[in-house]
Write the structure tokens for this entry.
Amino acid sequence: MKKILIIEDDEILANIYRNKLAVEHYQVEVSGSGESGLALMRSFKPHMILLDLMLPRMAGVEVIRHVRSEEDFAKLPIVVFSNTYLTNLIQDAWKAGATKCLSKAKCSPKDVLDIVRHTVGAADGVVRIPMSESAATPTIVLDDAEFQADLRKTFTESLPATLATLRSSLQNLSRTTEEVERLKHIYDLHRRAHALSGNAGIAGLYLIGQMAAAFEALLKELYEKPRNINVSTLRTIAAAVDFIGFLFQFGLAPEKQDMPPANILVVDDEAISRRAIIYALEKTQLPSTGVDNPNEAFRLLSLKDFDLVFLDVDMPEMTGFELCAKLRQLPHHKKTPVLFVTALNDFESRTSSTMAGGNDFIGKPFLFIELTVKALMHVLRGKVQPKTA
């Protein structure tokens, strides 16, 4: 019998994967930490490891390095669950010796089973019907569609409690300015976003999973680099929690879980800033058009539809506020989301003044992942929100 070791600190996820594999007659053991996982590996001697990269204490990349350093396990297949927005972490996992990387936010139990079969083969080559302990009647085994529907039902029933917990963590964060306490609350939000991303993925609710994954990546960066915590990033955290609540209400339709196509316009006369925005959008596969002249931007806006517009505030010939006021006169852009990009030292005064028809602000210099979170929120809201809303 093929043996699979799962190293995952989310007990719910680990049990779902274990049960799915056990039904297929794999022998499965689960560990909740990197340290205990390594010890279990040596005694259990698995044919494959399923490993979450985002483990507390000993990170998943360190686990891979330890596995590869031991002669008996140097070639053991290691399939990792990761966050596609954490590109550096994924690269580190490949370098350490990962066999395959899976996106946790878009990974169903069936996907995991398919990868296990492809990597180590069928459990024993024999298909059997599991029996109950009394052997009087067969245990009911759901097919993949029924299993997915059951997971989705369980997940959606937990959403009110999940949202309440996120909002409670956000309130705790907003009440403190002391760095140690602030980092504690950011880490708490990070772990909750990590769990939400994985749970949404197994439930097949990939839009929630993708949003939670981007939010998790932002929180991870802020926790590791506290100097980037400022009025702009804190505002983005609050907006992300609110938007997750919006997705809990409108983003549950199983037939609408593909990332919607989007067309984004970036208007900034500074080449470096413009390229930075475009790069951040590329990280989440959102195509964009960059323009350095506000008049040319207005010409493009007159000709075609855009799903989101980024405007630098301070530009020659026409400010971002003036361009926004003009585009609002175009019938097809009356409700197009507009996000202003402004210097961080002007952020508070800008946001407290008139929005000039805009929807949001982000402060320069910005984190790539902060801008990614902002873009996802505005694009997904426009695609998911009911047309009558």
Summary: The domain at 153-250 is CATH 1.20.120.160 (Four Helix Bundle (Hemerythrin (Met), subunit A)). Residues 126-141 have pLDDT under 50 and may be disordered.
